[in-house]
Amino acid sequence: MSAGTQLLFRDDAYQKSTTATVIAVEDNKVQLDRTLFYPTGGGQPGDRGTLTGADGQVYAVIDTRKGDVPDSILHVLAEGAAVPAVGTALTAAIDWDYRHRLMRLHTCLHLLCAVVPGSVTGGQISDGKARLDFDVPGDSLDKEEITTKLNGLIAAGHAVETRWITDEELAAKPELVRTMSVKPPTGAGRIRLLDIVGVDLQPCGGTHIRNTAEIGPITVTKIENKGRQNRRINIAFAG
């Protein structure tokens, strides 16, 4: 695939559609010059949606992945589906309801980091539920207590903001990185921070809502023992 793509979702996770031009095609993968589609990464699934040509031809995007070139985003179509030609002007639209559910859950996992002490050893988000693994003793976690604390932070309506710091600033504050196995990418000169004001601050490149109240009620469905000190906390939308 060719050069990078302008990543519009980094600046506005609420933008639902945009005009774009096809800059590369490989098999069933389409690269655009600009996109709203978030690629699979950081435990968050890739976006799905549609690419629509000026002639009304609709191409269904079933997944979005990172390409080999930094900031290159591949829009994956179904195997054997028609693909637009390089140079085609399109309207790219994400499946907003799906994306919004992922954004709500992703933001809630940041709140979970604020509630549970200990380093994060893994995580995953899917449609309607998510989980984080923590390096903590098993007897230190209570499902009902965590549920109550999470919903308290959600209902409090904390602002959610993004900002950037330099590689050097992050190196001077290693405590900002909560994940043990995955470190934020460095070398580009700056790192994106997700700031739930007054609650949690850590590097993150994912998509998030603007206020914790938008998450809605959450429940901790179960806490699993995944090793001597590895505990998996599963959450889901309540109701």
In brief, what are we looking at here?
The protein is an alpha+beta fold and 239 residues long.
What's the mean pLDDT score? 91
Straight-line N-to-C gap: 43 Å
Percent helix: 10-25%
Question: Which structural class should the secondary elements be placed in?
Answer: alpha+beta
Roughly what fraction of the amino acids lie in strands? 35-45%
State Rg. Answer: 19 Å
Shape: elongated
Question: What features would you describe in this structure?
Answer:
Helix 1 crosses helix 2. The chain has two domains: 89 residues, Elongation Factor Tu (Ef-tu), domain 3, CATH 2.40.30.130; 139 residues, Threonyl-trna Synthetase, Chain A, domain 2 (Threonyl-tRNA Synthetase, Chain A, domain 2). The chain starts with 5 loop residues before the first strand and ends with a strand. The strands form four sheets. It has a six-stranded antiparallel barrel with strand order 2-3-7-6-5-8. It has 239 residues and is an alpha+beta fold. 16% of the residues lie in helices and 38% in strands. The mean pLDDT is 91. The radius of gyration is 19 Å and the shape is elongated.
What is the strand and helix layout of this fold?
Blueprint: E1 6-7, E2 17-26, E3 29-32, E4 34-35, E5 49-53, E6 58-66, E7 73-77, E8 89-94, H1 96-115, E9 120-126, E10 129-135, H2 143-155, E11 160-166, H3 167-172, E12 190-196, E13 200-203, E14 218-225, E15 230-237
Parallel strand pairs: 1-4
Antiparallel strand pairs: 2-3, 2-8, 3-7, 5-6, 5-8, 6-7, 9-10, 10-15, 11-12, 12-13, 14-15
Helix pairs in contact: 1-2
